[in-house]
Every structure is written in C-alpha cells, then in structure tokens.
Amino acid sequence: MSAPHPHHHVHETRHFPDGFLWGTATAAYQVEGNNTNADWWAWEQTPGKISDGSKSGLACDHYRRYEEDLDLAAGMSNNAHRLSVEWARLEPKEGEWSAPEFAHYRKVLEAVRKRGMKVMLTVWHFSVPAWFAEKGGWAHPRAAALFERYAAKVAEELGDLVDLWNTMNEPNVYISQGYLSGGWPPQKKNPLLSQIVALRLAKAHRRAYRAIKRIRPGAQVGLAQNVLSIEAYDSHSFTDWVGTRVIDWWWNHLFYHFTRGYHYFLGINYYFHYRLKKFGWPPTTFFAEVRKERRDTSDVGWELNPQGIFRVLKDFESYKLPIYITENGLPSTNDDRRKRYLVAVVKEMWHAVQSGVDVRGYFFWSLIDNWEWEKGYAAKFGLVEVDFAGGTLARTPRGSYSVFKAICEDNGLPHEMLRYIGHAVDQPYEPLPTGVHAKKEPHA
Ligand code: BGC
To answer: How remote is the CA of residue 424 from the centroid of ligand 1, in Å?
Structure first.
C-alpha cells in the first residue's frame, strides 16, 4: 500500500442549514420563445438593437421543452426552481385573460412540483405586454393599478402552486436601462421620468404584495433586486469612501426603503463588484478599469468577485429578513471559470451563514444558455449548453452542471470541490495501464 499523499486531508463538508433551497433561475422571455405580444418582441426586430444581431425567435423553445429542462434541474438534485410567467401571454389585450396560457403555466408549475422542487415565481421579469407599453408603460399614472390587477389574477389562478413570490425583477436595472441609459425599451434618457417610474414601481410592488396576500394569506412575497458589491479603490480616501456609501444607498437600498414593510424576504441578484476610484464627474470615470488590471472577468468584462457576495450579504443583514440569492452567475464560454466562480461564491455564502446571516437559498443564473436581452445569444450563462448555432437547440450539460449537482446533493460544499479554487486536494496516483507509455514532450 502506498503512503498517503502529503496533501492528504479532509475537511468536513461545509453544510448549509436544513431546508436550504438550491436551484436555478430563468425568465420567461429569455427561454420560452415566440413571445410575440411583448414590447421586447417589436423592439428587437429593429436592426441595431441587439448587439449580436440576433432575435429571440424561438429562444430555447422552453415553452414546449420545459419538461426536458425541468428534468435537467431535478437531475442536479435541485429542490427549488425560479421562473417567471409572461404578462403578455396571460393578458394579451388589456383586461382580457388568456385561459389557455394560464392552463399552460399550471402545467409548468405542476411539472416543477412533481419533480420535488419548490416554486419561486416572478410575476414580472422585464418584458411587458405591447398594449401596456403603448399606453406609456410604467410612466402611465394607472400602471401600478394595472399591475396589481394582473398580479391578483396570477395569485387566483396559479397561487396554489407557488411557494415564494417575486412581484418583480430588478426594478433598479429596469429603470436605468429603460429610462436612464436608454439601452432597453422604452429607450428613454430622462432622469426626472426615471424617478417617477421608480416611485410607480415601488407602488406597483406594494399593491401587488397586498393583492397576493389578500388572495393567498400565507404567501411569502418579496422581489428580486440587483445588488452590487462596492469598495473604495483607495481605503485611505475619505471621498471614495463617501462615494461607495452613496452608490450603495442609491443602487442597493433606495428601492427597499420605498417598499419597507412589504417584504417577507429579500431577493438579491448578485453579479457586480466595483472599485470606486474617482468619485467625481463624469460618472463614467468612477470605477477602476477591470481589464487593464487583469482582474478575472466574464466574457462581457464584468469583474468576477466571489467575495463580493459576502460583503453584500453582511450589508443586507441589518434588515433582519430572510435572504435568498435569487440570481448569481456569469456569461462565460470558459466553463472552468464558471466552476471556479460557483464554488468560490458558495464558499463565501457559507461564511456569511456561519457569521449569522439568514440566507435561505441560492438560485444560479442560469439553468440553460438563453437570450440575454440586448446581448442576444452571445452571452452564455448556462450550466447546460444549448445548441443555437446548429439550430437543434439540443441541451448538453457542462462540467459546471456536475459541480452544482455535487453541491446540491450535499447541501454544501464537499471538500473535493475546493480544488476548483486552488485548494490542495489529494489526487491519488494512477499508474498508466500496462502497455501504455506516457508521451514524451519533444523538448523533454
Ligand atoms: C436579469 C436576467 C439577466 C441576468 C444576466 C439579471 O440582471 O434578471 O434577466 O439575464 O441578470 O445579465
């Protein structure tokens, strides 16, 4: 018997609390296909709007292939799944409900539950019905009332199948993309209007929250917000420190303040980490240049900073509410990077739990590659690859699928997974089979 490798050692699995939810997240418009009644559909037909020139079209055809996709989620031992319903399908014309579409989503939610997964439902995830957009969208004075009516209908028709509710997804991203930078429909660049819309969205959340609770009194209702981790580039700079506080308050907390008391839980989508270098004017010069400094980045240049999730969780601990990571992931064609990032994030999340933060679940974005809004199909977020190029839409699990599966099965981080973040995990010596010779490198 050979002696154990000097690195041989085992730590216990870093377990999460019993009942912790592990799942993936998707959004209807990004995976279903043929959402022809939504504002995004009309918008994406105009050349130049989508950076890779694609149209969502059939997307992943999840509308028809949802059973297969849910099998993939259940195959990772996920015990929860986050998905959204498409408002434009359910209310294709103002005040007219589509019974067949409600029936469709009933089947989908039943299919989630049948596989032993809890349902986290998002009532509205970015795309709105074309009729709503034509009326003026969220700038319309009755927008919140129209949303409340829709949310109430969803609660009546589908609420018995929902475990956790997000009324909406990332109002801060929606406002900044749709009303400040103008990169998304309705393409406004109007700071004043953006603030009006922010107040309407806050009202819409409060009204939807109350409506869902009226119809389903036990419902656990919250929303998913984009939360960024921010630190000062120079820890000795007082202005940079002030800058980080201002941005944290404005981006991460303001919407929660407008909706205080209307959250059973806090839903956090974590993707971004910024180092504030120059708090001044113009805002484009605020942040340190990630690429120049050779930081680990995603395919679209976002800094990958797993430690940031710990920072964010500690920041949100003060609300004294349960927290779900409702999204976290990265666009990358390099799956090793995805594995590394996933393991490192889960480790940081574990430290947060250890330090007393009430984290109840984690949803990876995303189960399958999908249509990434203005970036089209170029950004690859999936634990499962989808063949868009070949047009077959065939699903092929990536290596990161197995890593997430191991985490979900153990309700924690098994020791051997730590090798993805460079921890010395013993690799037993394996001799080559008889008759096979190791290839010598020519220069050896
Ligand atoms: C959104 C998703 C999006 C993801 C990756 C989140 O902001 O909720 O719809 O695909 O981030 O960019």
So the answer is: 34
